[in-house]
Specification:
The protein is α/β, with parallel strands linked by helices. The protein has 13 helices and twelve strands. The strands form three sheets. It has an eight-stranded parallel β-barrel with strand order 1-2-3-8-9-10-11-12, surrounded by six helices. α2 crosses α13. The longest helix has 17 residues. The radius of gyration is 19 Å and the shape is globular. The relative contact order is 0.15.
Length: 323
């Protein structure tokens, strides 16, 4: 089944491993668990090592002859987009209150020499530490990626989709990155857009411009309601993505609509109640949270019982998309 065919089923579940997640071991476990549970679409950091780890996870759970039905997406972003940013703690300002250590969902903060510091490979830019720090010792930074340098190798390793995370009003940079993707890749492209910084009318005009030179339904619009906020399983958490998806649906753009940002097991139900007929649901924070204790087990892939427990949790979450 091609990615296009998978999206056409309107029951597509995409696991978001996080665009900035560079923890190779965690990625391997995530893919192994969710592939076994029935997920066929995975979103990854745009690094060769991460894609290779993801393929190892797929090999663990899915026979080689069946892997054509499984699809990888790599995520890139414009500079300073939250999804590709990482936290930094200034020791000169830090008061060592350790609130950041307690709130981090990714085990990305550790104590070192009496201070908290960031484990860079684990940080996904969720900003929970940034928002809770009382001394403003935490800042967010992103690295501008040279797409022309990284894309050829990643494409050669086998990907079905590339996602561009956009925000703000720098139309020139957005256009430049989008053109680079269009000229380098002939598969499905995805645009992850939120409503935090520009109005709905501007968003629709932007999306119309970006997809104008692409064939109908060769683009996914990911309605990023509240980025990386899916820490609980409530209707309120997922409300913004459903509201945003309705705006995209009403625009009648020839695109696939994917719900994201605060998504959880209530997302599809709420979308249905609101008359939003989305094609897919992307889940990251909540999907990782429900199996976090298993991801933290060093021997998970050798422990059959624990692995199956994690798979069952993932299965129940994926089923929520089909309701």
């Amino acid at each position: 089944m091609t990615l296009y065919d998978l999206l056409k089923t309107k029951k597509c579940f995409k696991l978001v491993c996080a665009a900035a997640n560079e923890n190779e071991e965690e990625i391997k476990k995530l893919i192994a668990i969710y592939a076994k549970a029935g997920c066929r679409f995975f979103d990854l950091c745009a690094k060769k090592e991460i894609l290779q780890s993801a393929k190892q996870g797929l090999d663990y759970s899915i026979a080689k002859e069946k892997q054509d039905d499984y699809h990888f997406c790599i995520s890139v972003g414009i500079k300073d987009n939250q999804h590709i940013s990482k936290a930094y703690i200034s020791r000169n300002i830090c008061t060592n209150c350790q609130r950041c250590l307690q709130i981090c969902p990714q085990n990305a903060i550790k104590k070192q020499d009496g201070f908290c510091s960031i484990v860079t490979k684990n940080c996904i830019g969720c900003k929970k530490c940034f928002e809770i720090c009382p001394s403003q010792a935490i800042s967010m930074h992103s690295e501008d990626i040279n797409l022309q340098k990284i894309l050829p190798e990643l494409i050669s390793l086998g990907i079905s989709c590339i996602e561009l995370h956009i925000s703000g009003e720098d139309e020139e940079e957005i256009e430049k990155k989008w053109e680079e993707l269009n000229s380098s890749f002939d598969g499905i492209l995805s645009i992850c857009q939120n409503r935090n910084e520009i109005g709905d009318e501007k968003i629709i005009k932007r999306l119309q411009r970006l997809i104008s030179k692409r064939p109908p339904f060769s683009t996914i619009i990911q309605t990023d309601g509240k980025p990386m906020s899916g820490s609980d399983d409530s209707y309120k958490t997922t409300l913004q993505t459903v509201a945003f998806a309705e705006i995209i649906q009403n625009s009648k753009l020839p695109v696939f609509i994917m719900l994201s940002g605060g998504t959880n097991s209530k997302t599809s139900e709420l979308a249905h109640l609101c008359g939003v007929n989305a094609d897919a649901v992307a889940m990251g924070s909540y999907a990782r949270k429900i199996i976090r204790p298993y991801l933290d087990m060093p021997d998970l892939l050798e422990n059959k019982q624990s692995f199956e427990e994690a798979v069952n949790l993932a299965k129940n979450l994926i089923k929520s998309v089909s309701k």
